[in-house]
Design brief:
Blueprint: E1 3-7, H1 12-28, E2 31-38, H2 48-75, E3 80-86, H3 89-99, E4 104-107, H4 119-133, E5 136-139
Helix pairs in contact: 3-4
Amino acid sequence: MGLILCATRGGEASLRTQNAAISLAKERGDELAFLYIVDLEFLNKTAAPIMVDVENELAELGNFLLIVAKERANEEGVKTQTLSRKGNVREEIKKAAVEINATLVVLGRPEEGSSAFQLSNLHTFADEIKDETGVEAHII
């Protein structure tokens, strides 16, 4: 039995990725870990008090999204855990994969023009995950 790591952020694209990860875990008999990351790099020039408020709000939103994802997976009979992190998305995904001994990282395919990752960059990131952690990464 393996452990699939699925980063999530909410929204329609994330729901599709979660559904695919749930199906994959069920098919393979793997456990599933959903990961939410609060990344405030886009606010790097904002006043510190505002950043604390935004960080707390995003963390609360993330916890809610993780609870919903976990409930959906559990309804499908998939054993699930959740992780919440703060920091750079790329680095935190790699760290989490190593820390939980993931056997696979699932990355959601970006929608046209609506993601921080372009598909070509996502392929590069998937290769980076494999090279740096030894964990396979699949784009769904």
